[in-house]
Amino acid sequence: MTWRLSSATLCQYKIGCHDLDGTPAQETDMHQSRPVDSAGIATLSTTLQLARQRFFEDGSDPQGSVPELIARSWRRCSALPCSLSGTPEPLAQEALLARRDAQGQLRRHALPELEALAEALSPSRVMVLLADPQGMILDAAGSDVFMNKAQRVALMPGVEWSEVQRGTNAIGTALTECSPITVLGLQHYLEQNGALGCTAAPLLGSEGQVLGVLDVSGDPRCIQAQTVGLVRMAGQMIEHRMAMDNCPAHTEILRFARDPALIGSHREALLWIRNATIVGANRAAMRALGMTFEQLRGRFVDDLFSALPATDREQFELALHPWLVRPGQSASWASGWVGPKSASNRLTLAVEQESTEQVRQIPSSKPPIIVDPQREAQRQRAVRVLDCGIPVLILGESGVGKEVFARQVHQASQRSQGPFVAVNCAAIPEGLIEAELFGYEEGAFTGARRKGQAGQIREAHGGVLFLDEIGDMPLSMQARLLRVLQDHEVKALGGGRQQSVDFVLMCATHRDLRRMAAEGRFRSDLYYRLQHFVVDLPALREHADAKAHIDELLQTILPSGRLRLSPQARDALLDYSWPGNWRQLVAVAQTLLALAEPGSCIELADLPNEIRRDWRTHHQQPPSPSSALTRPDAEWEGATTSPVPLRAMTDTAIHAAIASCGGNVSRAARLLGVHRSTLYRHVIQK
């Protein structure tokens, strides 16, 4: 008799594998699953091992013996041009940090869920992983015991777990299938990974694109049904958060759900609508409507629904047209808009220019943009240059919003309907950047995808190619890029014919390209091709009204009804030089918002260490312990080199601060830059 093994079935049984330390897995279930007799366990384990033997030795198709997703993955892996074996080396720390920086938005939304999921699963021997769209593991949290064992099979940050690199596994197969999947024990293609149990959910954007993947891995016995459910729920929450933060320009979001209580939660269905047509949808919407994204894209929303809500305040019953209702399906949902439907109040990144200088109101995770006459004039000139096919070079420190400026220029240009393809040259390993940019043919190199890859230059056809950190591009790639700019043709790795491409180049860097070209670290011929039109974005501290802009942003992110800033904290934030510019300012403000209790006051002690230190060096300090202890008394003369007990120094500083504040402990705590509770604790201990 042949057994069909589903993920749900395998969650309940031991599947004939060994732990990572080489010891046989125990048959006890730490989550007290329904007991199964030993004959049933043996049958399931034997069936899987027999399927592997027939597949790897005889080439027999595993269909019917393993889940269909697993069978498809085995077939793909067996067709790879190279054999999968060995334990890969992780990226160097610098390369991993660059890769993380390139996925900053994904990590910003996913890391809170990563930590929460790890905490929820802390009784289990599992780890929670976040990987980028290529399967590169970026972050890990969870069981230290299992993390140490997982390193033996390279299940760690800095290692790519795509199918091409690691065979059938939850991360790589979820990315390939664009579907949640559980892979247990010897369902992994590589036998060396047979000690793992993994369940993963891909993270999808509003246009169905893969943004990353969330994974839980551990001993196969620990991947229970509830584990699978928690991973998928956490994935939905990340998708929802990213979707609401990445609203495409000039769109409204229609939200609907069966239960009005679900409106506003991660379970609501979302449709992005531009000019009455659907341009985006989340998974909940596709599931509710029974359509794929390709079936929804470009359809008039009136073709689906008989009426639409008028404003975001209107609770409305959204109804499908009768001919679209499926058997057994309810036709009505509760619905509303994310924001007012009027064009002047749409939640978009493109905000109309205002008559006075101010910080643009955009989602808080995006770097805000300073709107001033000089910047607006630069944007208008850049649009005119771009429309003539001339490259635009954007200079500026990290965090000033170079990519956001480039996107604004693209949206205002004649190529706004074409793609905007952004490439971070510093985030792609040198050995991969050529394939990423120019594409490759099938079999061009070991690990190449079966049908090859078009490359990001060809993906930018008809639009704009934005090369961020162009100063970090290898010299060999600079020569090829210059040839593409001259000939408007690109040839993929591994042969093939030249293909015509139509795109305009925008570049950005924080480096001094002129000096690099003079020193031979950047091709001078490429530099002179790029420097025809240069936009130099000033740092935040260089703006004439920097403090006013900072204060306005703080008021936007830290609503006065919920939080207050103490005078010292506000002064410290306004006086700080912000070397990381807008990106650093937004990150600090969001962190303060996340950590503060509603209705509380943010004190100087709540600010990051470097901001507190900077404020103290520019403001009068309370009497230091050393000065307080160095008295003109005869007993201290000639004794300044004697060591002073740390407790005595602390007590002296505390008493001096309290005395200078007239006995007010709260004011003394703010003056010392510590929490009031810390000061009380020292006083009580004294």
Question: Could you walk me through the main structural features you see in this protein, from its secondary elements to its overall organization?
Answer:
- The structure is a single chain.
- The protein is of the alpha/beta class and 686 residues long.
- It contains 26 helices and 21 strands.
- The chain has a five-stranded antiparallel β-sheet, with helices on both faces. It has a five-stranded antiparallel β-sheet with strand order 8-7-6-10-9.
- The radius of gyration is 29 Å and the shape is globular.
- The termini are far apart.
Question: Nutshell version of this structure?
Answer:
By secondary structure, this protein is α/β, with parallel strands linked by helices. It has 26 helices and 21 strands.
Query: Can you list the strand order of the major beta sheet?
Result: 2-1-5-4-3
Shape: globular
Name the helicity range: 25-40%
Structural class: alpha/beta
Termini separation: 78 Å
Number of strands: 21
In angstroms, what is the radius of gyration? Answer: 29 Å
Strand content: 5-15%
**Largest sheet composition:** 5 strands, antiparallel
So how many helices? Answer: 26
